[in-house]
């Protein structure tokens, strides 16, 4: 096992030398990342085919192009996002300079998952670099082919002093977590997320935890069922359901459920033929452990669609379960596979009660034409985000923060939120030694009096809005200039009169 303490110390020394703070350096790294995505596309496609039997279409659209879009967004706005902010000022600081500076944390640890093993490593990596940090990346050992590609190509394109890739499994990750990092970004399960958080607490290291959970789907009888079934099934089948924001289970009436099943049979046949196992577009389960875990769920409730499996290929067909009890194993943990259980409810209120009786999900999906029903579910439940009449696509809107709440995670990223995640916003108050400022501030000095207290209360009063307050420093400066000019002019006149 490598000497991780030495690795972190060396990397921190590079950070303190100031190499990564340069905007030019950061821009160069982002441009190098775009070159890496272009020149190494085939290697990435091959690695994901090895790890997950993922087809070229899914790899390019959900891994490479998504990562590329985030890097382009960072490049496009980096100068703007990294600029100092000029917040509003109150009366007490009217003569002062008030700024918010964007300061990189230092050495960041990024721990990636296996389900989208490329983009979920590259996006936080590039966000941390854009913010001016050094990074140690630990990709998942379960997606070993993709991790090997990352370890191979990143040193070729990015600064080897500032960016390091560490391979290995649980022992290596455990040893890494013993080191003091300045920020930790983790994507993965809630169980491991708690371990990461406990390790970070030792050093009071801030963390972003992108976890998962059971993301529910509510469908009412106003929804366009033809479109709804396609969008829900696509969200469940992409990457064979191994997506943290995949629809986990459906809440609806028995009538809607039965109509859904009939349409699902037709659509799945159109997409994957009668035998999805032969389709080149259907991903496999990552490893034997997860395959066996998912196969056990097939015994819960009643299989009405799919239910086929093949251990030799770690294949499980798109499956729908009905007559599922809330206490069944399939309803306890995040499924993370192509299995979709149905729970019957009579209305939105019952759905809300069911959702609120469980841990807060990463996403809530609502399929309804009724705006009142949409608003009711959004306002009366808690989730990381919401998708109305759509699944998964909300993840692609880079102007929306993506992240969980409660058991589904903490912190958010994507677009500007990625950049903001990796910077500390340092508030700065900058005063000078002008006499007028000292006169205004002298009321804080002892000995105290009621007169001074009255003046302090005036200065500290928070007004909702004072028209023209931003011009007060200029008026004061102008007034002081007039007084000085008037004083000098008067003194000269008196001097001349005395000479006469």
UniProtKB/TrEMBL annotation:
Matching Pfam families? Aldedh (PF00171)
Record-annotated membrane-spanning stretches: 471-495
Q: Which GO terms describe its biological process?
A: aldehyde metabolic process
Q: Residue limits of the Aldehyde dehydrogenase domain?
A: 7-425
* Keyword S-adenosyl-L-methionine attached: no
Offer a single GO CC term for the protein: cytoplasm
Listed name of the protein: Aldehyde dehydrogenase
Name the species this protein comes from. Answer: Melipona bicolor
């Amino acid at each position: 096992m490598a000497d991780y303490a030495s690795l972190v110390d060396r990397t921190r020394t590079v950070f303190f030398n100031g190499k990564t703070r340069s905007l030019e350096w950061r821009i160069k790294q982002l441009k190098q990342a775009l070159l890496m995505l272009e020149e190494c596309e085939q290697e990435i496609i091959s690695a994901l085919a090895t790890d997950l039997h993922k087809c070229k279409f899914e790899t390019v659209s959900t891994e490479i192009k998504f990562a590329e879009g985030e890097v382009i967004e960072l490049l496009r706005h980096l100068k703007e996002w990294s600029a100092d902010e000029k917040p509003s000022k109150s009366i007490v600081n009217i003569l002062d300079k008030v700024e918010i500076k964007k300061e990189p944390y230092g050495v960041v640890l990024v721990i990636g998952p296996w389900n989208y093993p490329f983009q979920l490593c590259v996006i936080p990596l590039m966000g941390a670099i854009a913010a001016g940090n050094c990074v140690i990346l630990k990709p998942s050992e379960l997606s070993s082919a993709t991790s090997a590609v990352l370890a191979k190509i990143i040193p070729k394109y990015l600064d080897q002093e500032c960016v390091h890739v560490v391979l290995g499994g649980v022992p290596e990750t455990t040893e890494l977590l013993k080191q003091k990092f300045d920020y930790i970004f983790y994507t993965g399960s809630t169980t491991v997320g708690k371990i990461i958080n406990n390790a970070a607490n030792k050093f009071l290291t801030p963390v972003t935890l992108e976890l998962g959970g059971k993301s529910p789907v509510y469908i009412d009888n106003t929804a366009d069922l033809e479109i709804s079934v396609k969008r829900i099934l696509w969200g469940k089948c992409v990457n064979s359901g191994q997506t943290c924001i995949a629809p986990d289970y459906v809440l609806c009436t028995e009538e809607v459920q039965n109509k859904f099943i009939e349409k699902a049979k037709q659509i799945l046949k159109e997409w994957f033929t009668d035998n999805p196992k032969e389709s080149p577009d259907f991903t496999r389960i990552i490893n034997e452990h997860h395959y066996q875990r998912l196969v056990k769920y097939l015994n819960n409730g009643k299989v009405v669609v799919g239910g086929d499996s093949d251990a030799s290929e770690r294949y499980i067909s798109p499956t729908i379960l009905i007559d599922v009890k809330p206490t069944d194993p399939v309803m306890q943990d995040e499924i993370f596979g192509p299995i979709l259980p149905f729970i019957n409810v009579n209305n939105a209120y019952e759905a809300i009660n069911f959702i609120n009786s469980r841990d807060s999900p990463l996403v809530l999906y609502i399929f309804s034409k009724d705006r009142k029903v949409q608003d009711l579910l959004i306002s009366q439940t808690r989730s990381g985000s919401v998708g109305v009449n759509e699944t998964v696509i909300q993840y692609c809107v880079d102007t929306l923060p993506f992240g969980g709440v409660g058991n589904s995670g903490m912190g958010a990223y994507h677009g500007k939120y990625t950049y903001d995640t990796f910077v500390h916003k340092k508030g700065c108050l900058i005063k000078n030694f002008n006499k007028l400022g000292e006169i205004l501030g002298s009321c804080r000095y002892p000995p105290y009096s009621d007169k001074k207290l009255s003046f302090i209360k005036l200065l500290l009063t928070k007004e909702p809005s004072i028209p023209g307050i931003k011009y007060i420093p200029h008026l004061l400066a102008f007034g002081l200039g007039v007084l000085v000019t008037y004083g000098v002019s008067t003194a000269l006149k008196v001097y001349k009169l005395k000479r006469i």
